[in-house]
Amino acid sequence: MNYIELVDRNNIPQHIAIIMDGNGRWAQLRGKKRSEGHQAGVVTVRNIVEDCARMGVRYLTLYTFSTENWHRPAAEVAALMTLLFEQIEEEIFMKNNVGLRVIGDTSLLPQNVLERLEACIERTSGNDRMTLVLALSYSAKWEITEAVRTLARKAKAGEIALEDINEQAISQELTTNFMPDPDLLIRTGKEVRLSNFLLWQAAYSELYFTDVLWPEFDNMELHKAVYEYQHRQRRYGLTGEQVTNEENR
Ligand code: IPE
Ligand code: IPE
Ligand code: MG
After folding, report:
1. Mean pLDDT of the chain
2. pTM of the prediction?
3. HSE of 196, CA atoms in CB hemisphere, 13 A
4. Ligand 2 pocket test target in 44, 61, 63, 195 with most atoms within 8 Å of CB
5. CA of 194 relative to ligand 3 center, distance in Å
6. Going by DSSP bridges, is the β-strand pair 59-66/130-138 parallel, antiparallel, or unpaired?
7. Out of 3.90.10.10, 3.40.50.2300, 3.40.50.300, 3.40.1180.10, which CATH number does the structure's domain 12-138+183-232 have?
């Protein structure tokens, strides 16, 4: 099936979030080093960013490095940080009118990476076709803990009342407060888990898991995921009938 032709251009998810998994296994299957898998993964990132922008996606969040990934062998962490440093170039952002944002505990990142990221975020802040959000040194539990601490501090200082702590207030304290929740959450690389990614924000995201390893995830696979998303009914707890009636009103 040619999913690129089948996708409904009027129903593109506003926000796609991706757990980019399988670089290591892709490399190992080819007798290569894991770091070569990450290098191959970068090519996919570049292509998917352009494909999403072209498709009309407004926000693309990529799980790039988790809090737990810091515990990988030092050489792999170092290789990933070097790769990240090398890849933050403005060219692809400017060419595609894409802005950059980062979520995660960036204080843990090497200084040179952080500086380059900040410069790129600053220079691309006017680009409004799509926002690329890199989850770096990110974990959902870290983020939720930080939000809870901030709200508790504000309540203790008398800045807010306990009754002010509601779902909206919590969402506002999360690092993702500038964008809508993901409509579609994709995980490549066979595993069927969230690995501490956007636990709060994915409450009603459509989840899509594929065996395809990240270096092999291409435009057709992206469209296949979107096609499947378009054939699901998002009910948010209602009955299918209620949703259909609402749509036909
Ligand atoms: C995902 O690929 C990239 C990062 C987590 C940085 P992996 O490195 O986890 O690849 P596998 O799961 O070992 O194949
Ligand atoms: C999730 O992949 C993190 C990223 C893709 C950045 P992992 O490979 O770290 O996840 P687990 O360990 O298999 O759950
Ligand atoms: Mg993995």
Report:
1. 98
2. 0.98
3. 18
4. 195
5. 11
6. parallel
7. 3.40.1180.10
